[in-house]
Amino acid sequence: MNIRVFDNEAQAGQAAALVIAAQIVKKPDSVIGLATGGTPVLTYQDLARLTKSGILDWDRVTTFNLDEYLGLAGDHEQSFRAFMVKNLFSKVNIKPDAIHIPDGLAKDPEAESLAYERSINTRGGIDLQLLGLGRTGHIGFNEPDSLFSTRTHVVDLTADTISANARFFANPSDVPRQAMTMGIGTIMQAREILMLVTGAEKARAVRGMVCNPVDPQCPGSVLQLHANVTVFLDRPAATAMYHCQ
After folding, report:
1. Residue 211 to residues 85, 197, 225: CA-CA distances in angstroms?
2. CA–centroid distance for 19 within its chain
3. Percentage of residues of the chain with pLDDT beyond 70
4. How far apart are CA 103 and CA 78, in angstroms?
5. What is the DSSP string of 160-203?
6. Radius of gyration of the chain, Cα coordinates, nearest whole angstrom
7. Of all residues in the chain, what percent are helix, strand and coil, respectively (each to 5)?
8. Are 58 and 24 in contact (CB under 8 A)?
9. How many Cα atoms within 13 Å fall on the side-chain side of residue 231?
């Protein structure tokens, strides 16, 4: 696990954007895994800027998002699809049919999960997966558990995750209680993983991921077993990591 610490959130976000941009330049038909939430917003802004300047071309790129809330339509303002359209897809020249996000209104979420896995496999797997890290150490919506999940599946969100996402909704009771997410096995099959973590509230989770043994109670710790992982931190997120024993 290669860990880099930056002075602030903007520097970390820009560095992540450059890694993704380099992947697209190197392989124009890249399959990129994307994440949502507040952390990657600056990264997406930089990718949009690089695209507008003519450096990046998304015409042959395919994307797969990590997750989506169950019960929200893609045009709901708090859906992850709407987030991606607002922050990235509307600002780059990616083809609409190259965008893949789980269907939050699927009548059969289990069948949708299987279909999502097939779509990833059909396109040869993910070249570069962007991840964030939740306060509980979760990646995607893979919450602390007794076992690591394998493939895309439906999860019940923990109280902490619901609380963390409540800021995006008018009323905390509006936060969905379930989501569809790529599993740990799906994530670990990506050829390269880039994790971006910022903010002091994530410091404890970073410590658990980096310092402690691999444990499904801290899902991010599984990345210790991946051969090609880079973690970008700002200084507040890195503080507890320096006291590993």
Report:
1. 36, 15, 13
2. 15
3. 99
4. 14
5. HHHHHHGGGSSSGGGS-SEEEE--HHHHHTSSEEEEEE-SGGGH
6. 17
7. 40, 20, 40
8. yes
9. 26
Helix-then-strand count for the chain, H and E = 8, 10
Helix pair 9-26, 41-52: axis angle to 10 deg? 50
Using a 10 angstrom Cβ sphere, with 0-12 exposed, 13-18 middle and 19 or more buried, the burial of residue 36 is: buried
Span 18-36, average pLDDT: 98
Band of pLDDT at residue 245, cut at 50, 70 and 90: low
Tokens of 25: 């330049």
Neighbours of 75 (CB within 10 A): 9
Q: What residue ranges define each of the domains in the chain, with the CATH number in brackets?
A: 7-31+44-193+206-219 (3.40.50.1360)
The Cα–Cα gap between 70 and 73 comes to 8
Alpha carbons 49 and 240: distance in angstroms, whole number: 33
- Predicted confidence at residue 158, as pLDDT, reads 82
| Digit-coded pLDDT (tens) for 37-96 | 899 999 999 999 999 999 999 999 999 999 999 999 999 999 999 999 999 999 999 999
Task: Give kind and range of the element (H or E) at residue 85.
Answer: helix 80-87
Q: Which residues pair with 218 in a beta bridge?
A: 215
